[in-house]
Amino acid sequence: MVIMSHPLDTTLGPMAPFVCQLLTELHGLMGEHAAPQVDHLCYRAASLPEYLELKVLLARHGVLLVEGMIGGRPIATYRLHQPVCANEVSVPCIELAAPKSGRSHQAGLEHIELVVPSLHALVVAHPALPFKTGNIEDGRNPDLGLMLPSGQVKFHLRPLSEVIDEELGTGAVVPVPPDYYDGL
């Protein structure tokens, strides 16, 4: 097993081992398959001040692709200068999620997202797995979720960077309100 350390590991936690653990758990449930395309991983901040601090840090380690309001809170996505590498998997992007207002969140690595050819075929091939299918028919970016002991794996049809490019091109990104961080 080849797991490469990353400069952000000391702040965000060991990212490659997180990816490997989730892929190992997924393999145990779904069996052997080709090297998965892990599109990105997500770190959830516990507070808005932590989110703002991590935005500054991530800007030194990657290029901001977009920041927008998703699910009532800001989420920023960065293409890392140095991808997270674990075995044959290279993870090019990281998503930084602010906490949802009024909710308590634990800071840490939360999920990885994989690109697959068909969400419906995945559900049919693994009928015993408790997929979260609420977004499977989303017109812009359908997905499935699967909770595992070490975190969540989400499945998409396209890489996040493609979705971001489309959203930027069509004006679909909801900007963070200018006064969102006032009062911190």
TrEMBL record:
Name of this chain's protein: VOC family protein
Organism of this sequence: Aeromonas eucrenophila
